[in-house]
Specification:
About 3% of the residues have low confidence. It is built from 9 helices and 2 strands.
C-alpha cells in the first residue's frame, strides 16, 4: 500500500466526501466487523454526490501522476452542485419551477441544466420531482392523510397528486398506504 499526500484541492474534495458519507452508508460507525450497507440507491442525490466526489478525487490523483493538478473550477462546480441539491431538498414542499430556482440561485437555466446533466445524468426538474415524490411517499408511509400531504406539499389537487406519484414512482399512493398498513399488522 502506498501513502499519498493530498494537495489542498484534493483535501477539500475529501472533506466534502466525508461529510456526505453518512447520507449514503450505514454501519460504518457502529462496528468495524459489520458490513457497510447502502441506505441510498444509485438514483438518489446523496449517492450521486458521493460518486462525483470520489470521481473528482480519483481523477485528481491520477492526473497528479502526470504532474497535472485538480482544477479549482471542478471543485467549485462540485461544491456548487451540492449547494443546489441542499436548496432543492430544503424547498421540496414548495413546488418550485425552473424559473423560481434560477431566480433564487442567481443562475441561468442553461447553467443549472448542464450542471445536473454532468452530475446526475438527468435534468434539474427531473431530480427535483424525484425529491418531491420520495418525500411524499415517506409521508404516506408514515401514515399522514393524503389531504394533509397534498396541502403540505402544495399539490393542486388529489388527482394531480395521484398522477404525479404514479408517474414518478410507478405505483399509486394507495399502494404505499396499503403496504405501510400491512407492515404495521406484521
Amino acid at each position: 500500500m502506498r501513502k499519498v499526500r493530498l494537495d489542498d484541492c484534493e483535501r477539500n474534495i475529501a472533506l466534502n466526501l466525508i461529510k456526505e458519507i453518512p447520507n449514503v452508508f450505514t454501519g460504518y460507525d457502529i462496528n468495524e466487523f459489520e458490513p457497510i450497507q447502502f441506505k441510498a440507491s444509485p438514483g438518489d442525490a446523496e449517492y450521486q454526490i458521493v460518486k462525483n466526489y470520489l470521481e473528482l478525487l480519483c481523477l485528481s490523483l491520477i492526473r497528479r501522476g502526470s504532474d497535472a493538478r485538480c482544477s479549482v473550477s471542478e471543485h467549485k462546480k462540485a461544491a456548487q452542485f451540492a449547494e443546489i441539491v441542499a436548496y432543492l431538498k430544503n424547498n421540496v414542499t414548495n413546488n418550485l419551477t425552473l424559473d423560481k430556482i434560477c431566480h433564487d440561485l442567481s443562475e441561468s437555466p442553461g447553467t443549472l441544466k448542464a450542471m445536473f446533466r454532468k452530475f446526475t445524468g438527468g435534468g434539474i426538474m427531473k431530480y427535483y420531482n424525484y425529491l418531491r415524490c420520495e418525500h411524499s411517499i415517506k409521508l404516506l408511509r408514515d401514515g399522514h392523510p393524503i389531504t394533509e400531504i397534498i396541502s403540505y406539499m402544495n399539490f393542486s389537487s388529489q388527482n394531480y397528486f395521484s398522477y404525479f406519484i404514479k408517474r414518478e414512482s410507478g405505483a399509486t399512493p394507495s399502494s404505499y398506504i396499503e403496504k405501510a398498513t400491512a407492515e404495521e399488522i406484521i
